[in-house]
Amino acid sequence: MSFHSIRWRIAFWFALFYIIAMAGLGVFLANQVRVNKLQDLENQLTTEAQMLVKVLEPVDFTEANIPTLDEAAHTWGQTLNARVTLIAPDGTVLGESDEDRAGMDNHLTRPEVIEVLETGSGSSLRLSNTTGLDTLYIAVPITRAGQMTGIVRVGLPLSEVEAIVNSFSQMIVLSTVITSIFAILLAFYLAERTTRPLRQLTEDTRRITQGEINVHPTSTTTDEVGELARAVNQMAQKLQEQIQDIETERGKLGAILRQMTSAVIMVDPQGRVRLLNAVAETMFGVEEAENLGKSLVEVLRHHQLVELWQTCKASKESQALALELPGKRLFIQAIASPLDGLLAGHVLLVFQDLTRVRRLETVRQDFISNISHELRTPLASLKALTETLIDGALEDPPAARRFLTRIETEVDSLTQIVQELLELSRIESGRVPIQFQKFDPRKLVIGACERLRLQAERAELTIKTEYPPDLPAVMADPPRMEQVLINLIHNAIKFTPKGGLITLHARPHYNARTGNNEVIFEVRDTGVGIATDDLPRIFERFYKADRSRSGGGTGLGLAIARHLVEAHKGRIWAESTERKGSTFYFSLLAAEEGEGTQKPKK
Length: 602
Ligand code: ADP
Fold this sequence. Notes:
It contains 15 helices and 17 strands. A hairpin with a 3-residue loop joins strand 16 and strand 17 (581-589). The protein has 5 domains: 6-163, 2-Layer Sandwich (Beta-Lactamase); 214-255; 260-348, Beta-Lactamase (2-Layer Sandwich); 358-429, Signal transduction histidine kinase, dimerisation/phosphotransfer (DHp) domain (Helix Hairpins); 437-589, Heat Shock Protein 90 (2-Layer Sandwich). Residues 596-602 have low confidence and may be disordered. Helix 10 (355-390) runs antiparallel to helix 11 (397-428), helix 11 runs parallel beside helix 15 and helix 13 runs antiparallel to helix 15. The protein starts with 5 loop residues before the first helix and ends in a 13-residue tail after the last strand. The chain is an alpha+beta fold. The chain binds adenosine-5'-diphosphate. The site of adenosine-5'-diphosphate has 22 residues, from helix 13 and helix 15.
């Protein structure tokens, strides 16, 4: 609670004013009481003095009568309960009630006596020379035949008057204190009541400032404070509407930034990062919350990008740069554009990830170089064979026949490459329609096994099948899947030395990630295996792990198999240990319940 508050100021001034007013009134009243009391006393003493004048008129105020007069002064002093002094016209004290007359000086100099001598009656309020007390004196002359024969003076100490005035003053002080306490409390209560809506308003305004949007300052009063509350309320509502508008705009902007596939960073004229979207966070490995307000140098830690921003800022023209982010193997294109209007001096940096595009470009180049290589070998043989024929082999029919047979083989090999390439390109471009139908995976396994059994036996290999009795039906294009399986078995035969074993296996599987039932096919061999480095690349076009062994292979078989399986929304992968053997897997979706005769199993 602050003493500077309106509440305290009102209460303080109100109480101060009240106390001053009460004190002034008290002093005035006390004075008035004193004056009245003195007036009363004066009247009383005058009456008493005049009475004494009547009584003492017959007595001569001479020194001879001192005993009588002194006696009378004593008696009347006691009767009137006042000090009675009888004075001769020359000022000699002839009788005195309270003091020893003999010790008293001439009284002609006393103010009341002077007054009597001058005007015929006198009064004085003063400190008594004799008693040392504040005393009110009334002096009245005794006249006989127009001649002043003596003076009667009656005096009364003012202690009584003072006592009355004092007790009155005390009463006034007491009542001032008591009423002041009430006045302060009242002032405080009133001030509290008056300022309460103001304080409520202050509190509401503070909450609004802190961002609470559901605060509505209200006031039931119709006074100025009520008016103010209503005005603040309107302002708050306007503010809330505007905040909501801003929020909506911000939401839209946020949604756009989130959905963008490019990284976006906005930099202010001082080079501090003001905005950073999610893609930028991942691209540069930074968090928006921690990096807003930090310098671009600190956030990007890449001098080329900082230079790009500087050039753009200085030239006020868009700048572009393609570069590789160190350590991330990301190839990006950065575009810096100057902003204008409200954001003049700011620069928007947009980064596009070109890694994929670059990789595709590399794949394309590799493909061309591979295909040239693959074609060059048979073409070179053909060239050599035909040259030999032209150079004279034609004259020797048995040799010519041999050469022609070899030419045919080379042409067959070329044809196979071209056919497989065509096939691959057709599958890749989606021109091979997949005719899904529900069928029994066992038939697929048995069919493929039978087709290659002879070939396997020729290579002195054993081939066998394994599958549980409750395999669910799959949805696939049977001839295409048979092609995949044959490609895999073909490889197994090719890369397994004599006496080896090839196992075809099928089993049901529940894919927890996709929530689908699947059938997984396996082609396991006990062959040469594949080096760990080669394993991730064997599904690429023309990739051959071991060129010496792969013989007439084109390196396209697995690429075709992968595309066919993926066109069926399945997966294909391989595991292998060198010199121990390899296992190739692929999965197919099980036919859904109701689609198949056999229920898919989880
Ligand atoms: P290719 O026509 O050369 O067989 P593929 O695409 O079918 O082409 O296979 C690519 C490469 O993968 C092969 O050259 C071989 O090195 C490796 N490979 C495939 N299957 C096996 C396997 N069962 N055992 C060992 N290596 C294999």
